[in-house]
Amino acid sequence: WLWRSDPHEIEGYDGLNIPGVGNLADIHGGVMAALLGNAGDVVYNLPVCNDADGYDPVCEGRDYERKESWDNFSPRVAIDYRVTDNAMLFASYARGYKAGGFNTQEVDSKFDNENVWNVEIGLKSQLFDNRVRFNTSVWKYKYNDKQAIRLVAFESGSVPRYVTETSDVEGKGVDVEILWAPTPGLRLFANGGYQDVTCTDNCGSSDVGDPTGAPSTRISFGGDYRINLGGNSGSINLHADHSYTSAVRENGTCIKERSCGTVVWGNSSWETGEARNFTNIRVGWTNADDDMSVSFFVSNLFGNRYRDGARGVTTDTFGTPISEIATPSLWGIDLTMHF
Q1: Is 126 in the same domain as 35?
Q2: Are residues 116 and 223 in the same domain?
Q3: What is the pLDDT of residues 60-106, one digit of tens each?
Q4: Distance (Å, rounded) from C-alpha 131 to C-alpha 153?
Q5: 112 near 145, Cβ under 8 Å?
Q6: For residue 292, how many other CB atoms are within 10 A of its CB?
């Protein structure tokens, strides 16, 4: 990767002109100069350059290059055993990785491969004349150098930057899936999972052993019912589902980033990261040939609204955080045709 600090022509510079406003590249340069004063370039004002010419705290007017390579061997082994014609036990062990790279906005900054191993043991089954499907599994994984993009403020400048940081994370949990067809045309389903995910090293503002923030519980359930109208009249299709996600598990990092717990900003305060519930319904008609349908649907039927934390690049720089609110109830009509 090559970090460049000498002047370079911007490709497509003329296309950045806005009549009556100016050139966006020039405006950006002026804004950065106003923010940094005489501090120099926001990227190169970092005491990290070491080369044959000796130590240079600013690296102004020259390039800095670094080369790295990464490799990995990621096998997977799986076995299964049929207990009966309708039930199977399985187990698997797998390794995986994501290649390392460079933080383009921080000179001489690199991050290593993200490595993970995962173990899973479970059961898959079809019961009661295939009217019930029951699947479940328990699992555990461990990440080394798990990559995460974070907005980080540096002492060398007042403008925070998005950089990739790494930490070690481990988790364990259980998943359950149930599908039941009690009568023709009626199908009920339920899915659930519990997980415990914690940070074990390089945890930033969190303590070793703290949860990563991932919710511990997710549950969804619902059903579909098809009513045949007879003849060539097609069918009426009814659907409803509900999903629940438990609250974000608080830690030092999410509190610092204002993405969990009680957020206080000026004279305002609000809760974020709390448990969430959403309900959706759909009523539709399908013709006898199953090639045309029309449906009326409602998402987030009860209009539950949940607010994000205070975030954004300008949160600390200009004191202008962004906090988004979940989409309210949404209804619509869709038409589907197959040719």
Answers
A1: no
A2: no
A3: 556 667 788 888 889 999 999 999 999 999 999 999 998 888 877 77
A4: 56
A5: yes
A6: 14
What is the DSSP secondary-structure string of 254-295? Answer: HHHTT-SEEEEETTEEEEES--EEEEEEEEEEE-TTSSEEEE
Backbone angles phi, psi at 282, to 5 degrees: -150, 135
Structure-block tokens of residue 89: 């036990």
Same domain assignment for residues 213 and 299: yes
Please indicate, yes or no, whether residues 118 and 260 belong to a single structural domain of this protein. Answer: no
Nearest CA among 236, 241, 334 for reference residue 287: 236
Question: Which ranges of the chain have pLDDT less than 50?
Answer: 35-48, 50, 52, 54-55, 57
Rg for the chain (alpha carbons), in Å?
Answer: 27
* Helices assigned H by DSSP within the chain: 24-36, 252-256
Reduce the DSSP state of residue 26 to 3 states and report it. helix
**CA–CA gap between residue 91 and residue 224 (Å, rounded):** 32
Question: Domain residues for 330?
Answer: 181-339
Could you give the CA distance from residue 94 to residue 117 in angstroms, rounded to a whole number?
A: 6
Residues 199, 328, single domain; the answer is yes
SS3 78: strand
Which helix H or strand E contains 176, and what residues bound it?
A: strand 161-180
Q: What is the pLDDT of residue 177?
A: 98
Shared domain check, 97 and 172: yes
pLDDT at 153: 67
Amino acid at 220: S
Place of tokens 């067809």: 181
Burial degree of 232 (CB within 10 A; 0-12, 13-18, 19+): exposed
